[in-house]
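User: We ran a pulldown and think these components assemble together. Before we commit to crystallization trials, I'd like a predicted model of the whole complex to look at. Sequences follow.
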Amino acid sequence: MNPAMKKHLDLFFATRPGLRAAAEFPSMEATGEARWDAERVAAYAAICGLPAGSTLPLLVPQIAAAKLHLDLFADRRFPFGALGIVHVENRVELLAPIPATAVLELTASVGNCRPWRPDSSAGWLFDLRTDVSVAGVPKGTWTATILARSGRDDPKSSGREGSKESPVAGDVVGGLLLRSAVVTAPENIGRRYGAIASDRNPIHQHALLAKPFGFKRAIAHGLWTLARTLGEAVDDLPTSDLSLHARFKKPIFLPGRFLVEVRKKEKELQLLAQGVPFEKTSERGRAIPHLAVTVTSGRG
Amino acid sequence: MSESKALRFVPIEPPPNAERVRRPATFAAPGEKRGRYHLPEALDSSSPIGFRTRPSLTRAEAERAVEMLSLPRPTGFVSGPVLREEELFEESTLGILVARQSTNFRGHRSIVLGPEDSARAAELLKKMGRREAPVLDGAAYTHVILARPYVTPFTKLLTFIGHRPGKDLWTVPLRALRKAVFHTPDIPTISYLTELHIGVLADALERASVVASEGRRRAQVFLEPFDRPADPEALAAFEALVGLRAEDRRAGYTIAIVAQVGYAKPEEAFPLEKSTARKLGAMLCSLRSERIQPGVNAEEQAPAPYKHRQAMDVPEELTVMAGRAAYNAFAHFLNIPRERTKDLLLLERMDVLTPGGKERLRGVRHELEEITDLIVKHLPKWADFATGKALSRNTQRGKKAFALAGQRIYLGGLSRREVEREGKRFPHAVRAFGAAAARSSLVVEIAGCTEIPEGCDLLAGICLMAGPVNQNDIGKTFFKKRDLLSGLYGDRDPTSLLVWTLKAKTVADPIGNEEQLLNPARKGALVDLRPGPHDVIFVRQSGTNTPLRSLGPRRNQERAFGDVGNFVVSEDGREIPGNRGSRWPEGLRTQALWGVEVAR
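Assistant: Here's a predicted model for the assembly, 900 residues in total across the polymer chains.
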């Protein structure tokens, strides 16, 4: 069998050792290089509603490292199967802007494993970190926090619907409202974005493919949702020394729309992607945002 | 040929303190049924308008705004900086997207030509032979407005009117077919409505170029119908230049307006302070039809501010200025001596303050209701039953469109015979009439937005209505009724075209009226949804028409002149989610559209 194919099959179907204690989590690292051509950068920018410029859009280095991430997940030492892991948080520490077509020197690693809830049987959180340099000069760090649920947890009460202990829509409120706009996520956005980002996870492709995984319809990629949300505030974001913390709380079903509100509170920019008030949602469902983001200038 | 008479600002006296009321602004409580008096839950629209309040102009700002309404045509252009995307967005907002033709927002498209195409367009316009004004050289860009016949559920309903029983089995489908293929209107005023809308847009375009450029740019607007050019080949070449396709023609689109825009000669510039221009732009985005006269025609369930009369009036001098603006605009767009306009424009005042006005209004209402009854009586039964009586129900519902309330009510029209005797084509005169109506309304609306007292929404508003005229036209065409203007102008073969209802008041109409233009779930049957720039504005670049503000799945969410901050908020200061919008990315806003300096 072709090694790439075998790796992909391993990713989903290989038996995993599982994890009993955080200390057992293996320390793993992968390195490589990636470069996006101008056409791909422009296509990515357009699909995320960003103007194409001379610098790389903020989340591209993380997407460019996807192959390394898969390598790590496919490694037999990695304790969790790729199916069912959920991207719950994302942090970016950008030191300096990166030229649009630069060769990215990437180092991906997993670590910082901790129990999701006090009772570790519910699942584990771990960080997937990507360090990026260009010509040997560090440009920043992208960290995805990932939840690996155990089979004993009830998915309806957590991950997909927003975790119970997640603060509701109020964790980024109170600043001066700068922008408030309804954003549309077309039905085909998962396929279009997936083709550009090389992420063809079936849950993003089509309702029929997403159903076997427990979703009523296909859901938008978290990193597209984040990029599209940031797109509404693109002129308010610092271009260097940026520190971003995003929390994914509830998926966006496709087709869908969400309300993005951008507020400024002292030096902090707060972005909230939430349900549109005139859509039929339960009070609880409405209170949980899809995504909450804070951005500050300077390293956090 | 036409010289405008200067306009003066006329203030409106606010009512006593106790009567100064404004629109209640509350969101529906959880579980409460939401109605037209509640604030919308959210706004999801790519229109640059949104839910706005009228900003209060200072007297100096209002005087400058009124002065702008009687500018003569430009005589030439000079070179100037390249046009940036954000400038076109704001100009198009005021010229196309905000104009008051709410029944036909989506019946128009604007193709914007760059400097090189504009030079070619000027050559072709000269060959076509424009009689209303000289074609200018050196335009920085050109708006070419395409218009299609007016199509709404109302025009569909018209298909079923005026048939003989039995014969209607084939005359209804025949008329429907003629309408679909040849765009043949059922009644003449429906095609006049299209012409009126074009006039409204033409007037807005002239103003838009001034306000959006703080007075640096001016527009030379041509609105005489383009269908009989001196050189037909030049028209064909012009249509090719703007990319008019066969499918557009099938949908009925034709070239309706050409507006050459350029940098004004120093002596023809109309400098506006930046803050004044921004406020005027925001004000133009906030204007809407005002149908309710408090204490006169509010419905039973209306909140208290709509139910009590207010001791205020439309000053006589203000109506004089509004009339003067109408005459100015009519002469300006028809290119006739101003003194001739008073003969050509047929106007009848018929409000309760004029002698016999009350009886006249009652008579008009009675006549229009009689026509409604005749329509219902003669509707083909097979069609009415097949549609679950939707036809007769909607006909009855249409009565709302004839509400004639206001302190000043004018009915206006033209005599085709007299217009043609003047050497002008009737459709051209109807277009000029539309422009005149729009401009005269603005005089009242500016006064209504000046020095607005605390606790009030406005001081005066206006509703321009075609509903009563269309209904009368149905009566004329199918039931042997006479024109509404026949009483006063019977010997002149009048065609009534529009009704103005002027209202002095401090409370704006319910926000639900505006919501039916912005929320697809609440769209009114007789109106269009406000379009976004990508729906109707196209930039011609390298032979391709590119929609304005379309980037991947992203569409405009910016509210034009939003920096003025005149957004509707609840009484406790909460904004309507999505209403504030979000500015288009700076990197795209500041982009030069055609990338070259305009060189002469």
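The beta strands of chain A are 28-34, 85-94, 104-115, 123-134, 137-149, 176-185, 242-248, 256-265, 268-274, 291-297. That may be worth checking against your pulldown data before setting up trials.

User: Thanks, that helps.
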